[in-house]
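Q: Can someone sanity-check these two? First one:
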Amino acid sequence: MTADLKEIGYRGVMLAYAKEIVIEKGSPIGDREHDEATDVEEWKKGTLETIRLAHGDDFAALKFSGAGHSVLRQLVEASAPSAIMDQATTEVCDYASSRGVRLLFDAEQYAMQEGIDQWTVDLQRKYNRNGSAVVYTTYQAYLRSTPATLARHLAIALREGFTLGVKLVRGAYLASDPRHLIWATKEETDRAYDGIAESLMRKQWNDVLEQPGDPAEERPSKLPTVDLVLASHNQESVRKAISIRQEQSRTGEQPIRLAYGQLMGMADEVGCELIMSGQGTYGNEKPSVTERTPVYKYVVWGTVQECLAYLVRRAEENRDAMGRTKESRNALGKELRRRLLRY
């Protein structure tokens, strides 16, 4: 599969282990009988297998909640990981680092997110020390708190001298996250996503991603080194990113390390447009060495039971798929005309 994707221009895959726990509304957290050692061991084995299946320069994606109800409770309480979980996570990160595979720790439900942020930033302190990121934290632009959270993490990375790995998504838990925590409109979410992406790509604070701290005190004037994954099916967001990269290519500005991702089987026209932008076939731009576009497909694996929660959430998240189907049809027609007119 990876070879087939690479043949048409994709850089590789973001291979995701589907095992996770989704908190149901009204259900107690972490109240089930469980054996933490067994749960964590199963999660670790599946995650190590994910990394083994990935190739160098691929990503492996994973969810902490897949390690069981005891770990779920630790995340909700935003406590430090248990010794068992800490050892398992260290083994996972060491193995990924040795294979050149980058780790995307996915965002989860808001109840767990503070704990996930704490754990992943601690991992970034340890593993993102050589000018590039091994560990990435996922930030959901639909949450009102995301710009401030990311700004704090950027300030920590700048102060402590490590690369911040950022995976930016719009958000995947609309059905379960408290509504008041989410932007009121899609337009506000779009503004947050695009503003954060532009700030990171241009290495400048802006009116969306603002400098953290008290305005009366000295605040960080620059951003740390950032490695960014833009995960988006939104064509306008992707085109804005392409425009910024092409501008930087023209002016000789050194860009940040950037990759793009879309779910396997969705938004193929977006991924292909990105690939074309790096081959000099998008608009009138010509590619440069720094402008080659690394585009990935996000592929999920696991047992049917492990994949069910993921599939249900994708269906909920993509209720607007009919609108995108029209966009995809138009894009296919445009590409067909372009190919026919070449002859």
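And here is the second, same format, sequence then tokens:
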Amino acid sequence: MSIMTYPGTHSYTFTTERLLARPLRPDDADVIFALKSDPQVVFWTTPEKDFSEAEAWVEERLGSEIYLSFCLEELSGNEHDGGTNGKKPHVIGVCGATNLPEIGYMFRRSAWGKGYATEALQGFIKFYWETFPQGHPSISDADERKYLKAVTGPPEEAPQSAASIRVLNKCGFEYWKEQKEDDSVHPGEVVTLPVWRRWGPNQQANLRLAGSGPPSIDG
């Protein structure tokens, strides 16, 4: 299958001070496996043991337009390699829309504590609303086109959850509601997770003009 036949394939890129965000590709399964096989990175679920699981993850995200996935490369690494020595640029993580309008990210542990998550998410938010000022066209619900959202683990259960919440707050996300999901670590159990939301610039402007808080959207 040619890469351009995948519904979730895109040609968008964006850069931040230190990062290049380029489209997820079929040959990125090795990067995904490195991330998703690390129990500290995927603390909320069961780490992957087989490379085929990472391949399936990539296939799923390239197979649907509800995903908008980017691999994150250090710009300094790209400048050093120059793209001419045959080395694959160093990918430190992934970010983007995991199921529009829901967003997410993962980083190698070696990249933790350096501000990359905040930098990447701020860059993605800017890219997203500049590219899709009315929301992504794959989102059929008119209300869901007005915002981006993220789901985290409860902050009291893992330091990674608390760190993710701090990143979201820095990027303008506010607590919205709770949602129940099947527990992927303990089959048969249900977990309650906090959901965070950030309004798009058009909606924020409308709210300022109205002089009121965010409108209620039933979840």
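A (reply): Looked at the second one. DSSP finds six helices and eight strands in the chain. The two ends are 38 Å apart (CA to CA).
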